[in-house]
Amino acid sequence: MTVARMLVLILVPLSATARGSGVPRVELELFAFAPESPASVSAVAFTPDSKTCVMPIDSRGRIGVFEVRHEVDDVAGPAADEQQLIPGLIADLGSDEFGQREAASAALGGMGRGAEGALRDALPRAASAEARVRIRKLLSRITEDKGRDEERRFVERLQFRVAPGSIRAICYSPDGTRLLVAGLAGVVSILDAGDYEEVLRVQAEGALDALWLPGGKRFAVAEGAGDVSVWSAETGERLTALPVLLGGEPYSIDISPDGRWLACSGMPKWVAVWDLSTEEMVHELGGFGDSVGDVSFSPDSKRLATASEDGTVRVWEVAGGEEVFALRGHPDEVWCVDYSPDGRWLVSGGENGHVILWDAATGVQLATDVQEAAYGRHVEFLPDGESLAAATSYGPAHFWKLRTGR
User: Largest CB tally within 10 Å, which of 167, 192, 233, 269?
Assistant: First the structure.
């Protein structure tokens, strides 16, 4: 078995938008990325207990299954002489290419804030992942409130492939016993989550997205031919098709937790909402300046969030189809969005590697992280509600821990 490469606890400061606003302090800590992939990672899924992760590991349909191990190491308390840490850090910051060594040296030597403040100032200037890990380790040594250092290791258990071609969707059934996998070639498979052997296969007209309906007896597929279809997870029968009347191509789908609504986004510039009890389209949401890449229902099924290439995250009341607010914090296109399991947070990902955490009730921007040379293809909260994952266009998936304060 192999162990995927790790990043450990990179601190991202709270957005200034939320300071002093009465909103609880929230920080994102990038704790890992895995696996190292030669191609983009288009999806990631966790079991309900958050202990097993599956994701594509190449562009040819191969999928890896990883055990998520939590390891907590004791670290030393505050260093007797903090300044002894500085020379080694500067040496590790690396590359002169963008003047980052000089910038880091200035931060460490001239800020007059002591080693802890200097290290925090140096974090965004670090030239590499290894340098950021080094900074985080040193911070652990000089701050009393960081007396234990938590790591998560992604240990590969097995690999499998159900069909050739790019994988667009992976998700576990609500009870965690089965895995749904769908790819651009249109092959949609259900696998046993114990041995990952295929138990059911259907052929759709291309599969751009797929997910389980509540209860796990049916699943829906956004087909490249322009329909959103619903299938039996027991027999493989195609039960119904919801035609996309707005034209264009369906891209992303979500189903409300109460099982009543199905939302679909697509290109160009549209979102449709169906009532699954009548199979009728009830809302055609508009006002977007560009295509809509993702949709996500809130846990209470009352709101729908959309992510658009026009740079906005919009939140809608599902019953009336009215816009609640539009969130503008991304500098460029927004590709994906997801609600936390308790409905408290909303996370979005987009172009240029920006991942933003929002207060779902108020729309206040709480925290931001930026992973350069990547954009979010898929972002979601883990079932534990304390972590989130983003599949990116550049190599590995990224994982963050949410830290909340008073």
Answer: 167
What is the pLDDT at residue 235? 96
Task: Indicate left, alpha or beta for 395 from its phi (over 0: left) and psi (-120 to 50: alpha).
Answer: left
In the chain, domain spans:
10-72+160-404, 76-146
pLDDT score, position 102: 46
Could you give the CA distance from residue 89 to residue 83 in angstroms, rounded to a whole number? 10
Q: At what angle do helices 114-122 and 129-142 cross, to 10 degrees?
A: 160
Query: What is the token pair recorded at 225?
Result: 């031919």
Report residues of the chain scoring pLDDT below 70. Answer: 1-24, 30-41, 70-152, 245-248, 371-376, 392-396, 405-406
The distance from CA 380 to its chain's CA centroid, rounded to whole angstroms, is 4
Q: DSSP E strands: which ranges in 209-302?
A: 209-212, 218-222, 227-232, 238-243, 249-255, 261-267, 270-275, 280-285, 292-297
**Which one-letter DSSP state was computed for residue 3?**
B
- pLDDT of res. 173: 95
Structure tokens belonging to residue 56: 């594509």
10-72+160-404 under CATH 3.40.50.720, yes or no: no
**Length of the chain counted residue by residue:** 406
- Which two tokens mark 43? 């999806």
Q: Report the pLDDT value the prediction gives residue 110, as an integer from 0 to 100.
A: 43
Q: Residue 35 has which token pair?
A: 């696996």
CA-CA-CA-CA dihedral for 64, 68, 69, 74, to nearest 10: 120
